[in-house]
Design brief:
Distance between the termini: 67 Å
CATH architecture: Up-down Bundle
Radius of gyration: 18 Å
Shape: elongated
CATH class: Mainly Alpha
Number of helices: 7
Helix content: over 70%
Number of strands: 0
CATH topology: Ferritin
CATH superfamily: TspO/MBR protein
């Protein structure tokens, strides 16, 4: 039996791809927006904490996260282009929700220990996401490596803050 060809035209495929890219950009934009809202006034909170010696200056977080969110959206889009909506996209969405939850826990609720447990879950979900993305599109997986490194660093920073405060 012959396989049924995709009925979409190349133009329709490109249009859908652009829409999915926009959806991924909007998703990380929502996460960034919630994080920005939850972290409003956080500079004072951050600077008032007893920080470990490896803590970066507060002004660094905004620029770093801006780049990371863009890389995350591009990675998710590339993985989608390679394999469609599959479990890699589901795991990506889970880690995105975990990312969304951390900032309100840490800054708005001042729940540093709970935030540490939550960021450990994020780190596990992110490692799984990187592995799944690498299997679908190597570039997609590698685009997440800076994010993985930053979350690993943020986990160490969160742990240091829990110990010192």
């Amino acid at each position: 039996m012959a396989a049924v060809a995709d009925a979409r035209t190349p133009s329709e495929g490109r249009s859908r791809s652009v829409l999915v890219l926009i959806a991924h950009l909007l998703a990380v934009g929502v996460v960034a927006g919630v994080g920005g809202w939850a972290a409003s006034g956080s500079r004072e909170t951050y600077e008032a904490l007893e920080l470990p010696p490896y803590a970066p200056p507060g002004w660094l977080f905004g620029p770093v996260w801006s780049v990371l969110y863009l890389l995350m959206a591009l990675a998710a889009w590339r993985a989608w282009r390679a394999a469609g909506w599959d479990r890699a996209q589901v795991v990506y969405a889970v880690q995105l929700v975990l990312n969304l939850c951390w900032t309100p826990l840490f800054f708005a609720a001042d729940a540093y220990t709970v935030a540490l447990v939550e960021i450990l879950a994020l780190l596990v979900a992110l490692v799984l996401t990187v592995v799944l993305f690498l299997r679908r599109d190597r570039v997609a997986g590698w685009l997440l490596v800076p994010y993985l490194a930053w979350v690993a660093f943020a986990t160490a920073l969160n742990a240091g803050i829990v110990v010192l405060n």
